[in-house]
Design goal:
186 residues; mainly alpha
């Protein structure tokens, strides 16, 4: 399930790599130059390339290195990807607590994918105690940041959790979401 987010986030990357090998190499050379110069977006994109072996040999350790460079600059995409690598034990030891720590950093910036992952983690008790009130809160926050079919999926997850909540628990989850939103203006 965790790999879904990585697969979705690499769609643009995959389309980029559907060009000729010479053009791919030029793109990768430019991307690496930007990444080495400290461009966080380029670092995340290069991390995705290594994570999926697109244009470069698949190498989870190298992917984590690039994600972490972006994450250490406060880039939410880098933080989510570092967290997902810890969650799956790819390129780093599997560590759900460390996964939650990195993903929460991105969530604190309002990153929709991070909010979604926290909802899943609370719903499944991965790295945090299983807590349907907290899961609903995170799913509710995530739903406000997605559109179209992506939003429909988040809303479906939120509503599945809501079906098991009492009226008081649902009210608590909604209150917590409002308070979080007030403290984390976008």
């Amino acid at each position: 399930m965790r790999r879904i987010a990585q697969v979705l986030s690499v769609t643009v990357l995959l389309m980029t790599f559907s060009v000729s090998l010479a053009t791919q190499q030029e793109f990768l050379d430019e991307l690496r130059e930007l990444a080495e110069a400290g461009d966080a977006e380029a670092q995340v994109t290069l991390g995705l390339a290594y994570s999926f072996g697109r244009g470069v040999p698949q190498d989870d350790v190298e992917a984590v290195r690039w994600y972490r460079l972006a994450a250490d600059q406060g880039d939410a995409g880098g933080q989510v990807n570092v967290g997902l690598m810890y969650a799956d034990g790819r390129g780093v030891p599997e560590d759900d607590l460390e996964a939650v720590r990195w993903i929460r950093m991105a969530a604190d910036q309002g990153a929709g994918d991070a909010l979604l992952w926290l909802g899943l983690m609370y719903a499944n008790g991965e790295g945090v105690p299983e807590d349907d009130v907290a899961a609903h809160m995170w799913f509710n926050l995530a739903a406000s940041r997605f559109t179209g079919i992506d939003r429909e999926g988040v809303v479906r997850s939120r509503d599945e959790v809501a079906a098991g909540l009492t009226a008081d628990q649902l009210a608590e989850a909604q209150r917590l979401a409002r308070e979080w939103e007030a403290e984390h203006t976008r």
